[in-house]
Amino acid sequence: MARLDDAFIDRILWYSPAKRIGAHQWRAIVYTLPARYGVGLTRLGFQFRRAGSFGSAPEVWTDGHAFPGYARHLPFNGLPKSLKGLFETYRSDIDMHLGVAPPAKGAQLHLDLAA
Known about the structure:
By secondary structure, this protein is of the alpha+beta class. It has helices spanning 83-89, 91-98, 111-114, and strands spanning 11-15, 19-21, 24-32, 42-50, 62-63.
């Protein structure tokens, strides 16, 4: 569940299963922004929480921008590099919820080549 004080998440459309990376659990989420930013805008983000000890309740999911190592000027924004593997594992699910069409079979020009 998103934090109640997170003003940038209106509704979570999809989230991946939690993956433990270091002392934290991480998940990818696809969410909609509140209507004041534009109706129907969806975004991809990452959330983390400290992995609970045996028998203790886990903490609330927190936005990846609040991670202690987060810094926009660092590679991967200071987040764990393993998040790329999490993204690649669930890429088809993420693309489907973001509205990204899969590449057409037999296409002569792929989008990667056009860039």
